[in-house]
């Protein structure tokens, strides 16, 4: 009896402590969108890669694009860069590693193996190639090492060419880009909002490729994680995370057009010229000099990686465009972000935004947090997700069959098992006629027949029930067209496909 009383007291104390902690967190930090997002941001914790059914029923891409999984179950991955021969280099800051995902030599849409390229680094994040050098941004230094693009191996010694970067406080990651013989380094702030002691914090710096002749290139940038150059004019753009603790809908996160010597407002000015309530009164004169964002993302969406499209196969309306990974909110009553958006520049420089890869968050349920974008030599875009440890592959005009099935299992499907053999046979016959009528074999393989390069229809029982497959036909993922099928026809087509795929 005494043992049970002691256990009950322990449980009560744990619950009480958690409630107190939650109250303190709410008072200190305001509303939290999702505990999962907070634990992911602070500790790098996440979940397993989603299975095929989850991906097919929750994630979506625009018409004409297809979605696959290039790699799964890679813990806490962040930034990516392709070598000239197609090996994908990926950073794992919290493990101190840089990974190499071997090029897709057999062209099955997935990497051909994962190995550790470098280990025992100090929270490596940003990556960049310049000729035969791989540059790596650690939290307190920038290093480089010779890299053999043909063999995908290192051919020399790792050397830190920039040291003494501070990594205390909130925003310790460093991101890098190289252009025209210069190395650009972003260095976030130590805090949500404050006046920094180190003038290099909340800036983008520029160095020679050997790490010499460093200068502050632009300042007032709270946390510019993503950097990239527009291919049509060479202009540098950077994403920036707006400050927290000012409510659900203020201030905007930013895309900034970076000018040499430019000041972008933080911590005195938010968004489009608004004085900060904590620090704005001290420096009102800066309101006239702070450069406005080129584009405002929704507040707390946390834009991270940005990639201007130059290699990806894409339709005409993506000619002057970039993809941006929105990591998703934590300091918000309702979750927001958690997707990849496409930004489109018109001839006058105006920018508009569309959803590109969405569905990572639905009604508070989070299955992923996009981080970075890379363009592959195959003409597809790649998206890293540090929450689910997945790298997604998005292609235009190419079918894919690379969704994760290793966690799938035979679905419990009472409706399927309730069908009599006669009813199943009759519906399957009608479904076969529908399959032929709509020329499904021109895009799919079923039992070895159909388009040899089309998406294979297999293991459907592990991914769908009779009901969920019937519903899927209402809004199928692109590039599959949306057919005007009655409920009965959708049922018959589902029965046929489930009958053909064990």
TrEMBL record:
Q: Which domain of life is it from?
A: Bacteria
Q: Which UniProt keywords apply?
A: Heme, Iron, Metal-binding
Q: What is this protein called?
A: C-type cytochrome
Q: Enumerate the InterPro entries for this protein.
A: 6-blade_b-propeller_TolB-like, Beta-prop_PDH, Cyt_c-like_dom, Cyt_c-like_dom_sf, Quinoprot_gluc/sorb_DH_b-prop
Domain Cytochrome c: start-end pairs: 426-501
What SUPFAM superfamilies does the record tag this protein with?
A: Cytochrome c (SSF46626), Soluble quinoprotein glucose dehydrogenase (SSF50952)
PANTHER family xref list: LARGE, MULTIFUNCTIONAL SECRETED PROTEIN, LARGE, MULTIFUNCTIONAL SECRETED PROTEIN-RELATED
| One example GO MF annotation | heme binding
Taxonomic lineage:
Bacteria, Pseudomonadati, Pseudomonadota, Gammaproteobacteria, Cellvibrionales
């Amino acid at each position: 009896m005494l043992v049970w009383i002691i256990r009950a007291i322990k449980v009560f104390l744990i619950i009480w402590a958690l409630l107190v902690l939650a109250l303190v967190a709410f008072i200190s930090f305001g509303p939290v969108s999702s505990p999962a997002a907070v634990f992911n941001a602070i500790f790098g914790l996440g979940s397993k890669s989603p299975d095929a059914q989850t991906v097919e029923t929750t994630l979506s891409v625009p018409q004409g694009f297809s979605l696959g999984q290039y790699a799964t179950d890679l813990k806490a991955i962040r930034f990516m860069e392709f070598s000239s021969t197609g090996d994908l280099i990926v950073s794992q800051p919290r493990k101190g590693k840089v990974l190499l995902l071997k090029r897709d030599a057999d062209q099955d849409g997935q990497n051909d193996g994962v190995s550790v390229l470098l280990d025992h680094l100090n929270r490596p994040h940003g990556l960049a190639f310049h000729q035969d050098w791989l540059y790596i941004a650690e939290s307190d230094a920038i290093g480089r090492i010779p890299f053999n693009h043909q063999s995908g191996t290192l051919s020399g010694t790792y050397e830190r060419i920039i040291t003494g970067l501070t990594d205390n406080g909130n925003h310790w990651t460093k991101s890098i880009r190289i252009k025209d013989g210069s190395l650009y380094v972003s260095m976030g702030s130590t805090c949500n909002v404050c006046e920094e002691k180190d003038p290099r914090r909340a800036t983008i710096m520029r160095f020679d490729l050997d790490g010499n002749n460093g200068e502050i290139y632009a300042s007032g940038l709270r946390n510019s994680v993503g950097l990239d150059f527009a291919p049509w004019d060479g202009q540098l753009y950077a994403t920036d995370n707006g400050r927290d603790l000012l409510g659900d809908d203020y201030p905007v996160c930013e895309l900034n057009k970076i000018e040499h010597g430019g000041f972008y407002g933080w911590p005195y000015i938010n968004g489009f010229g608004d004085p900060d309530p904590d620090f704005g009164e001290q420096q009102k004169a800066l309101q006239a000099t702070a450069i406005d964002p080129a584009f405002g993302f929704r507040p707390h969406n946390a834009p991270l990686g940005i990639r201007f499209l130059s290699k990806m196969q894409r339709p005409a309306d993506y000619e002057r465009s970039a993809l941006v990974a929105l990591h998703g909110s934590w300091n918000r009553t309702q979750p927001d972000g958690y997707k990849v958006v496409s930004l489109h520049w018109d001839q006058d420089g105006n920018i508009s935004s569309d959803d590109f890869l969405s569905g990572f968050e639905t009604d508070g349920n989070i299955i992923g947090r996009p981080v970075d974008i890379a363009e592959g030599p195959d003409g597809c875009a790649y998206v890293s997700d540090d929450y689910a440890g997945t790298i997604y592959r998005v292609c235009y005009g190419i079918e894919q069959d690379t969704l994760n099935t290793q966690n799938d299992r035979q679905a419990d499907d009472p409706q399927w098992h309730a069908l009599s053999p006669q009813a199943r046979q009759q519906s399957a016959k009608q479904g076969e006629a529908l399959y032929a009528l709509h020329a499904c074999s021109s895009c799919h393989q079923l039992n070895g027949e159909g388009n040899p390069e089309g998406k294979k229809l297999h293991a459907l029982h592990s991914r769908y029930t009779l009901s969920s497959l019937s519903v899927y036909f209402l809004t199928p993922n692109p590039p599959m067209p949306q057919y005007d099928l009655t409920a009965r026809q959708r049922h018959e087509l589902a029965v046929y496909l489930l009958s053909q795929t064990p």
